[in-house]
TrEMBL record:
Protein name: DUF58 domain-containing protein
All residue ranges annotated as the DUF58 domain in the record: 56-231
InterPro entries linked: DUF58 (IPR002881)
Length: 297
């Protein structure tokens, strides 16, 4: 029996993809190294769902169906019990990495930019999740989450692209799978109403996740004095002052208010919030992200 062009396309595509994966982008090499420093646990387990292994009994609650009742266990009590099993299916995790000009800032030429840190953490987290059998997607790509090494290469190539021309980023939520988990990495220096709207859309789809704010240490300390010109990274906003030091208290107050709003928005949506500084360890940030995915599941 002859094999037509359509039947051959699948194996040929896989061969080309595996060949591409054999030449790892530098960012993926860095991410693999960072991920190797984190102890990989049994991610995705010990959650109730459609699995084969028994996990626990729990009392029936509003919304449960009668067919879920374990009648043998319930016969021993005046309360009806549900027999829960461990979740064994792969979960979908979608990551949004802010690609705006604001993320290109660093207060020290020897320190990573906010964008560099965000991209590294996003890919290192993806490496850990793929190793755990999860499906990973990048909101910036607009494609469904997938598993496997080839998907990591796709993400690495997307994350090494040029930054957008926008001054500040807005979280992208179209195509978020229902009941998936999400990670938003950004400095969140843009429109806060847009962040709130994105979280509302995610919550409507039963999506839980994390707001992970990345700031440069200079943005936390505001070490400016005298004549200073403040300009957005995209060059669309500029402000000159002769007494920069007098702006410090107002700036720090507004920054604290922004961080507090992010924290409140996250808690109201069932998400988690964390602020990370590029001067701190990328390993500690990755550990927090990885552990937080369990808490947000």
């Amino acid at each position: 029996m002859s094999i037509g062009p359509t039947a051959q396309a699948g194996p040929q595509l896989r061969t080309r993809a595996e060949g591409l994966a054999s030449v790892l982008p530098p960012l993926l090499v860095q991410a693999e190294h960072l991920a190797s420093t984190v102890l990989l646990g049994a991610h995705g387990r010990r959650r109730a769902g459609m699995g084969d292994e028994f996990w626990q009994y729990r009392p029936i609650a509003q919304g449960d169906e009668a067919r879920e009742i374990d009648w043998r266990r319930s016969a021993k009590s005046d309360v009806h019990f549900i027999r829960q099993k461990e979740w064994q299916a792969a979960q979908s995790v979608v990551i949004w990495v802010d690609g705006s000009r604001s993320m290109s800032y660093t207060g020290d030429r020897d320190r990573a930019t906010k964008s560099d840190r965000a991209r590294l953490l996003a890919l290192a987290l993806s490496v850990l999740l793929v190793r755990a059998g999860e499906r990973i997607g990048l909101a910036n790509l607009g494609t469904p989450p997938r598993s496997g090494q080839v998907q990591l290469v796709r993400l690495a190539e997307a994350l090494t692209g040029e930054l957008s021309q926008e001054d500040y980023g807005i979280p992208q939520t179209p195509g978020l799978p229902a009941h998936a988990r999400a990670v938003f990495l950004s400095d969140f220096m843009g429109d806060m109403d847009a962040v709130e709207a994105a979280l509302a859309k995610a919550a409507d789809r039963g999506v839980h996740g994390m707001l992970f704010q990345i700031l440069d240490p200079v943005e936390e300390t505001f070490p400016f004095d005298g004549r200073t010109i403040f300009e957005s990274m995209g060059g669309t906003v500029s402000h000159e002052t002769l007494k920069a030091g007098e702006l410090k208290d107002r700036y720090l107050e507004r920054l604290a208010g922004r961080k507090d709003r992010l924290d409140r928005l996250a808690r109201l949506s069932g998400w988690l919030y964390q602020c990370h500084h590029t001067g701190d360890s990328a390993q500690s940030a990755l550990l927090w992200l990885y552990a937080a995915l369990e808490r947000s599941g």
